[in-house]
Amino acid sequence: MARPTTRRRPVDYPTVGLWIALVITCVVWATPFFMMFLTSVKSKPDITRLPTWALPTEWLWSNYAGAVTRGNLWVTGLNSVIVSVIKVPVGLLLAALAAFALARLRYRHTKLVLGLFALGSMVPIQVGLGPLFNIMLNLGLLDSVGGLILPYLAFGIPYQIFMLYGFFRAIPDELEESAALDGASTFRLFWQICVPLAKPALAALFVLDFVATWNEYAMATTLLQSQTHWTIPVAVQAFSGQHATEYGELNAFIIMTALPVLIVYLLFQRYFVSGAFSGALKG
């Protein structure tokens, strides 16, 4: 009796190609972080003598303790947390309100106002550092955490308005009409209908704005003068001395300060793949 022949499953070449591309991308992305970690546990002789990818002869975990002390992590980290926790939600709320007003409330010169916000988002921060310093000095807000939050809001909100405007504009008019028939006010339309539908866009902007605020250096180093008010990016300069730079402690400091950004991304990444109108479809 002849044995039944088994048909070989055809190779899915597109899937194989995608997996190969994914592996290559992961390796390229992870290699700098792996080298950064190796540098963070090396001694000065190992950093100068061994290749970057070589394992250290002595695993110097004390670099992390030294980084906490030299970078004053508990103070600078707390300052960065305060700035980010206040600036990012407040900025998103103001940007969402303004974008909703431009997109859903009909009035003249909407395009002109939107164009001004778009123009404001294109102004480089470096251009305004000089006038910004004088303004904060005259207001008595120089070298303070509060004096840093206000410019962050001013430079961040225009871009967020420009991004959220298109999202709110794409919401079907039928939803607004149905809410109006049910007696919903304008604020209720914004808070209970438009904001839930905008969760993917708001989550993406939240992560991007948090990362940008956490890593911002130009305005922070211009407005913050005393070490007690430094944020994380400004504290990095403490690792560069007159004659040498503590690369081991510097890399350890960068790794520790990157953890909050990673946590925020993990908390909000699920919204990146959700549909823009998933809430409306489920309702």
Major beta sheet summary? none
- Helix/strand/pairing category: mainly alpha
* CATH T-level fold name of the largest domain: MetI-like fold
What pattern of helices and strands is seen along the backbone? HHHHHHHHHHHHHH
Instruction: Tell me which CATH architecture of the largest domain applies here.
Output: Orthogonal Bundle
- CATH level 1 name of the largest domain: Mainly Alpha
CATH superfamily of the largest domain: MetI-like
**Secondary structure: number of strands:** 0
Helix proportion:
55-70%
Please mark out the parts with pLDDT under 50 across 5 or more consecutive residues, or reply none: 275-283
Mean pLDDT: 84
Distance between the termini: 61 Å
**Helical stretch tally:** 14
Strand content: under 5%
Rg to the nearest angstrom?
25 Å
Count of discrete domains:
2
Anisotropy-based shape: flat
Looking at this protein, list some descriptive labels:
mainly alpha, MetI-like fold
Molecular structure report:
With 283 residues, the protein is an all-alpha fold. The chain folds into two domains: 13-60, no CATH class; 75-282, MetI-like fold, CATH 1.10.3720. The protein contains 14 helices and no strands. The protein has helices spanning 13-40, 44-49, 62-70, 73-104, 110-121, 129-139, 145-169, 173-181, 186-197, 199-215, 218-223, 232-235, 247-268, 278-282. The longest helix has 32 residues, at 73-104. It starts with 12 loop residues before the first helix and ends with a helix.
